[in-house]
Amino acid sequence: MNDAIFVPVYILKKKLNIALVGNPNSGKTSLFNVLTGLNQKVGNFPGVTVDKKTGTSTIAPNLDVNIIDLPGTYSLYPKRADEWVAYKVLMLQDETVQPDMVLLVADASNLKRNLLFCSQIIDLKIPVVVALTMMDLANKKGTQIDIPGLERELGVPIVAINPRKNKGITSLKKAIELVAEKTAQAAARDFIDMTAIAEAPIAALKKHFPDFSSYRAVHYLINHEAFELDSAMQHTIEDIEKENQFNPTRTQAEEIMQRYGRIKHIMQQTVVESDPLQRTLLTEKLDNILLHRYWGYIILLSVLFLLFQSVFWVAHFPMDGIEWTFGELGTWLNKTLPEAWWSNLFINGIVAGLSGILVFVPQIMILFGLITLLEDTGYMARISFLTDKLMRKVGLNGKSVMPMISGYACAVPAIMTARNIENKKERLLTIMVTPLMSCSARLPVYTVLIALIIPSKLYFGFLSLQGLVMMCLYLLGTVMALIVAWVLKWFIKSAERSFFILELPVYRGPRWKNALSTMVEKAKIFVFDAGKVIMVISLLLWALSTYGPKRKMEAVTEQYDQLVKDNPSQEKELNKQRKTALLQNSYAGTLGKSIEPVIRPLGYDWKIGIALITSFAAREVFVGTMATLYSVGEDADENNSTLRQKMAAAVRPDGTKVYDLATGLSLLIFYVLAMQCMSTLAIVKRETRSWKWPAIQLIYMTGLAYVMSWLVYMLVK
Q1: Given the DSSP bridges, would you call strands 63-69 and 51-60 parallel, antiparallel or unpaired?
Q2: Which helix (H) or strand (E) segment is 158 a member of?
Q3: Are 37 and 173 in the same domain?
Q4: Considering the chain, what is the average pLDDT of its residues?
Q5: Domain that holds residue 662
Q6: Are 233 and 208 in contact (CB under 8 A)?
Q7: Phi, psi angle pair for 334, to nearest 5°
Q8: Nearest Cα to 99, choosing from 193, 38, 176, 207?
Q9: Are residues 667 and 585 in the same domain?
Q10: Does the structure show a pLDDT above 70 at 64?
Q11: Residues 327 and 429 reside in one and the same domain
């Protein structure tokens, strides 16, 4: 790109491509969401597993833009995979993303550190607009910034914004429009003079790339091996390095020293800072308590305890209301619709499956809403800091905590976030144990089983026994993940050393609108994504449970027709037995009976066996499976019973309850530990680029679940 000017880009093309860059925790994601609204899509950069978030925005009536949200990075010297993605885009080495302009987000409360990255972008000679965030926090610190003066020093437009409150966005759009409308001019002067550091190699390289800025030429000298250049050019650059004795490490060190020297001068000219010893921020005061070596852990456990208690406290009434509604609907439909196969399908397939989906929406919304509030306030990052010491003892580090905590929501995106872990061994260990964290798909299973076997008691008037059990299940998954990581670290070898560097965001007030939108979004995902799987399997199960081998089904029908004829007074009871016998001889019953010998030691019957098979598609399908199986085999006058009532009434041939304490606990342990998710296995294969690790994961998790469930069943029984 030429150092001078280029013609108005938005006149020549329909849309302007803007790369959105910045340091982590600078407010970049908030700005991206404000500018693009719902016009977003998430994909992957070609050849890598790093997320590519793009969105469209109308900047002016005649100017639309594509905004590419690049991963956060601290400088143009990448270390992690996601930093390499951002780096290659800025180096114009990604053919799919060619930015015409850079929108750089800088944190005003950490201006010195943010100016390092900003100055590097400026020296690439790409047109830049700087969005200055966290001005409110800077003011609280007593920092005053002369924005016009800072603009003059940097040579690029700077706009103060607050994307959380939608402030300054209009001015930012105007600045973007002016940069595009005038001449889309890059900074007129270099931030530092790179030729003073490496004049000869830069001059030699610019003979081959005359449009390059001096700073871009330096990066080609340092990282050309990672760029898509032909072999002849690679050899040419190598020769330039050798001829001029180019030293990448020394060049980088001198560059950083020069940059910080100039940044210091700019800060003295444009920024007034209060004495840090005279001012203690609320964040620091809170961290003294929340990160305390003893109290910090007690507070963390208390927060998790309240989180799971709230899932039961708040969701109890809406769940009861949904169950009652579907019970009444089932009764009305049975009385209204004629006896036919299609009415049976509608009531026992569609309605039963739908009830198994919607009844858990309140709990999922509450859980995700509370987790969003923890993230929004800045406390979630403190959890990483608190747990780093423990993580290191089992072969992980503090960065493993975020994927593992994300695993409480869903293992698929959680495993993808492990890309931020630089150390390959720690990243692989994190991927291998993250599915042990109890994801939201397990929540419906936990809820229905806990309600069956754990009495609804309150201690001290507010402590729910069911909530305590729920918390213990989540803790069990976490503890087992740590134990497995400790075991695996002895088998997965690596000579790499790892360091844990984490920037703690400031504490902020929660954005209730953000929490509410997340709750609604997660509920929609559950209903429309997981719900589709549940409904398809519910309908398939209805067919498998209603039909079976012709000879077997006809034999059962003839047998009970004769019994009813011989014992007319027992017709109602015999018809009940007929439905049970038909279900047992159906295709679903045959499948369940075939695996019953394997699962009988765990206390499971053939119906639970069917649920174990179907829920491999998605764990939450367990509930839909139970709803269908217990609906197919019941009388019309029992259709208003809730699923929990139907399961509580289920008995074995010897008259004992199917879901007693031993079986219920065994089943809970199985679902805590088992790998019951095809999507997770697929994403592990994609992230590790091998079927070896998902195969090991499936074997060890299934074996662990079986052994632990058997032990629990034997101990309780």
Answers
A1: antiparallel
A2: strand 158-160
A3: yes
A4: 79
A5: 527-716
A6: yes
A7: -65, -35
A8: 176
A9: yes
A10: yes
A11: yes
- How confident is residue 279, by pLDDT bands cut at 50, 70 and 90? very low
| Torsion sign across C-alpha atoms 568, 571, 574, 578 | positive
Q: Which residue has the higher pLDDT, 620 or 66?
A: 66
Rg of the Cα atoms in the chain: 31
Rounded CA-CA distance 131/156 in Å is 11
Which of 253, 278, 303 is the C-terminal boundary of a domain? 278
Q: Is residue 497 part of a domain?
A: no
CB 219 within 8 A of CB 91: yes
Residue 446 lies inside a defined structural domain of this protein: no
Round to whole Å and give the CA distance between 220 and 707: 56
Residues in the chain: 717
pLDDT value, residue 57:
86
DSSP string, 538-562: HHHHHHHHH---HHHHHHHHHHHHH
% pLDDT > 90, the chain: 10
Q: Which amino acid is at 1?
A: M
Residue 95 CB coordination number (10 Å): 9
CATH number at residue 172: 3.40.50.300
Reply yes or no on whether the pLDDT at 319 is more than 70: yes
CB 416 within 8 A of CB 687: yes
pLDDT of 93 above 80: yes
Q: Which long-range contacts (CB under 8 A, 24 or more apart) does 12-15 make?
A: 14/64, 15/56, 15/64, 15/65, 15/66
pLDDT tens sequence across 600-634: 899 888 888 887 877 776 676 677 667 666 665 44
Q: What is the pLDDT of residues 75-88, one digit of tens each?
A: 888 877 778 888 98
For tokens 């087992």, name the residue: 480
Look at residue 628 and tell me if it is in a domain: yes
pLDDT confidence bin for 178, thresholds 50/70/90: confident
Whether 1 is in a domain gets the answer no
Q: Residue 372: is its pLDDT beyond 50?
A: yes
Say which residues have a Cβ less than 8 Å from residue 48's Cβ, sequence separation at least 6. 81, 84, 85
Question: Which of 420-424, 427-431, 502-506, 638-642 is predicted with the least confidence, judged by mean pLDDT?
Answer: 638-642
In sequence order, what are the residues at sequence separation of 6 or more whose Cβ sits closer than 8 angstroms to the Cβ of residue 703?
Answer: none
Query: CA-CA distance, 537 to 399, in Å (whole number)?
Result: 37
Instruction: Let me know whether 331 and 265 are in one domain.
Output: no
Looking at the fold, whether 271 and 315 belong to one and the same domain comes out as no
- H or E stretch covering 63: strand 63-69
Separation of alpha carbons 373 and 301, rounded Å: 17
Give the model's pLDDT for residue 503: 62
Number of domains in the chain: 4
Which residues is 651 bridged to in the sheet? 657
The C-alpha atoms of residue 118 and residue 73 are separated, in whole angstroms, by: 11
DSSP assigned state of 507 = P
Q: Does residue 303 sit in the same domain as residue 396?
A: yes
Query: Which residues partner with 103 through β-bridges?
Result: 20, 129
pLDDT, tens digit (0-9, with 9 covering 90-100), for 7-17: 344 444 457 88
What does pTM read for this prediction?
0.58
Pairing of strands 63-69, 458-459: unpaired
Q: State whether 64 and 171 are in the same domain.
A: yes
DSSP structural state of residue 291: T
pLDDT one-digit tens code per residue, 439-496 = 777 877 888 888 888 887 777 766 778 878 888 888 898 889 989 988 988 887 765 5
**3-state secondary structure (DSSP) of residue 52:** strand
Parallel/antiparallel/unpaired status of strands 15-22 and 101-107: parallel
Query: Is residue 213 located within the same domain as residue 126?
Result: no
Please say which residue of 223, 247, 278 terminates a domain.
278
Average the pLDDT over 519-523 and give the result. 75
Q: In angstroms, what CA-CA distances link 453 with 153, 312, 624? A: 69, 15, 19
Single-letter amino acid, residue 506: V
